[in-house]
Specification:
- With 194 residues, the chain is an all-alpha fold.
- The chain has two domains: 1-90; 92-194, no CATH class.
- It is 75% helix and 2% strand.
- The protein is built from six helices and two strands, in the order H-H-H-H-H-E-E-H.
- A two-stranded antiparallel ribbon has the order 1-2.
- The longest helix has 33 residues, at 156-188.
- The two termini are 30 Å apart.
């Protein structure tokens, strides 16, 4: 297993996931509900920044690796899934929306793995639609974790809900985009699906 600064940052992101979730389960005597939302939001944002930064450093320093390419998306998906499950439990996100987002991530991960096995990984490379979906999602989730008003004007729950709804629509759209791109290869290699 290779070890470098980008991989270290990815491991830091993995380690931060329990904090994003766990802070909500601290006793109220230790941390008020408002402070819990703020702390969880801050940890989620730090984790999201490490996601951007580790990719940037890996490319800049030419320290990309197969292990890093595996670990990075796993960390991203765990971070999003963990946050969504907490948001569902605290009734800030509809379970159907969370299921759509998490289900799409599982489906596309499985598709990418299979496409890589048949030597067609580039057929399901990240698209601009997927990047827009991820951006909407990564702005919406911390807003919903915070669940308050910023600068006395911005209702983070309201705007976070809207953005996550947009992310859910883009999630379905991008999933069908990837599946449509992969369909000819899936038909051609249907014997290798099993």
């Amino acid at each position: 297993m290779p070890f470098n600064i980008p991989i270290l940052l990815t491991w830091v992101r993995v380690a931060l996931i329990p904090l994003v979730v766990g802070v909500f389960y601290l006793p109220d005597a230790w941390l008020s509900p408002v402070a819990k939302g703020g702390a969880s939001t801050a940890v989620f944002i730090i984790a999201a920044v490490t996601d951007w930064f580790d990719g940037f450093l890996a490319r800049r320093w030419n320290e990309t690796s197969a292990f890093g390419a595996f670990l990075d998306p796993v960390a991203d998906k765990l971070m999003v899934a963990g946050a969504l499950l907490v948001l569902v439990e605290f009734d800030r996100v509809n379970a159907v929306v969370a299921f759509i987002i998490i289900g799409r991530e599982i489906t596309i991960s499985a598709l990418r793995e299979w496409m890589a096995q048949i030597g067609a990984a580039k057929s399901v490379a990240v698209s601009s639609l997927g990047k827009i979906k991820t951006t909407a999602q990564m702005i919406a989730i911390p807003m919903l974790l915070f669940n308050g008003t910023v600068f006395g004007v911005i209702n983070t729950r309201y705007w976070g809900s809207w953005l996550l709804g947009i992310a859910a629509v883009l999630t379905v759209w991008s999933m069908f985009y990837y599946l449509r791109k992969a369909w000819p290869l899936m038909k051609e290699n249907s014997g290798r699906l099993l």
